[in-house]
Amino acid sequence: MSTLMTPTLMTETTQDPRWPAVLRRDASSDGAFFYSVATTGVYCRTSCPARSPNPKNVRFHEDVADAERAGFRACKRCRPDQPPLAERRAAMVAAACRTIEASERTPSLAALAGEAGVGVHHFSRVFKAVAGLTPRQYAAARRARRVREQLLESPSVTDAIYGAGFSSNGRFYEATGEALGMTPSAWRDRGAGESIRFAVGQCSLGAILVAATARGVCAILMGDDPDALSRDLQDRFERAELLGGDAGFEALVARVVGLIEAPGTGLDLPLDVQGTAFQRRVWRALMAIPAGETATYAQIAEAIGAPKSYRAVAGACGANPLAVAIPCHRVIKRDGGLSGYRWGVERKRALLDREAEAVSGSPG
Description:
- The protein is an alpha/beta fold.
- The chain contains 15 helices and ten strands.
- The protein has helices at about 20-25, 65-70, 85-100, 110-115, 120-130, 135-155, 155-165, 170-180, 185-190, 225-235, 245-260, 275-285, 295-305, 310-320, 345-360; strands spanning about 35, 40-45, 60, 75, 195-205, 205-210, 215-225, 240-245, 295, 330.
- The termini are far apart.
């Protein structure tokens, strides 16, 4: 039996140049016009996620007032009588940021979502999409900035505690460990009275900066821009006397470059590791991972006796100032994927590949 093909019904609506925007749910046309649907009695913005209406039931309106005068009510899904979705979401995130900034302790995700009047998962997704980071990450960044400002402006760490809005020493030190990457007094001093020798060289993974105090190597930084590495060192030890390395120091740099080229060999040099007590625990655990092997963030958290702190472990890896010497490149995600690496995921992959080759005995 043959099938009779019925041509598309052409109506005044389908011939209207605004109709394709409705079919596409074109958000860029939001506010330019609205449309109503006779069978539902509602009017919508063009980006409404509802099922596309039958064109014979559609009527176009120049603005909200015109649609309401015609007897239609606002759609509850796209809310055309309110600001556009992007503006509403931006306003919701801005309000949440103000709440975070005004709070001594970071509000829970549930509390922030409740204040916004939406579900937790929806709030979390929207906040990340608008702000580019999670509420917890935003709170940490805000807290870090507030702490740094007060440590520089206040005559003492005690004054900085209250100037930063903390009601007790305990809460201040709990927050600053992660925010500063070192103790408040050490950050405040920023290497005051310290002499640090440094030199920048090149290796197969790009530029490398090596710095050392009289106690040992305090920084091994990698990147593409030698000047950026020098600025990073200066920012970390702002009040220290930075000195160019002599011929003897160049030999130390060569040893570090050798470690980059053959990361499984280990670095038999004293290290001057500056960090919080938690960070040092993580870094010691990293140094116990044999070359050619990896561990997950959760496994490191278990190893240091803090099984629920895998996110903090990731933060400690990111704060590691001694590339390769403290092998944070050996920490991977639970699914085996390579997560973020302070000096670039490609460098992380290259280091792991080199270690695997060295252990297997295959040529590099």
